[in-house]
């Protein structure tokens, strides 16, 4: 890992930490969803997973849009666009994993499910896919409002879409619901293989979109 990647990662995290109230609200989002369905453990875990996906993707979206003003100047200064993207996304992945950890402890203590390891996998996969989706949206739109509305539509549709339907499979956070189903109900109801394949496809598509759009934008502004 180059020094430039580390430096960009530190800059990204400092920018996020400065927005304290927004960060606190996003951290509380999965907890709010969890508590809303606390009386129904199988629903509480699923809602927490989608809440985590929403939170991590929102942080990634805002970080990507905030970086639009600084990255062209850094490019003029000789920084590689690859280092800029890798540093930002790497920092967001680390933050997403840190965010997921206390929720894993919460579920293990408050609502232990039959397969607690699968719950940990769900939270980890959710953090990664959330960062990938948010980064791709941030590369696609230039303003926070448009990005937040797009993310709201995607997450809202994931909430209401029936998991077995084609629509649910086409949405980026289907793997979260499938992993939650596996953790709670077992292999007869949920498939680890399908969930991982869906998550891998989501991350790959979003990564390609982020890299392509970021490279184009930064190369045009040399």
Automatic annotation (TrEMBL):
The keyword Protein transport does not apply. The chain crosses the membrane at residues 21-38, 44-68, 89-109, 121-142, 149-175, 195-215. Keywords: Membrane, Transmembrane, Transmembrane helix. This is ABC transporter permease.
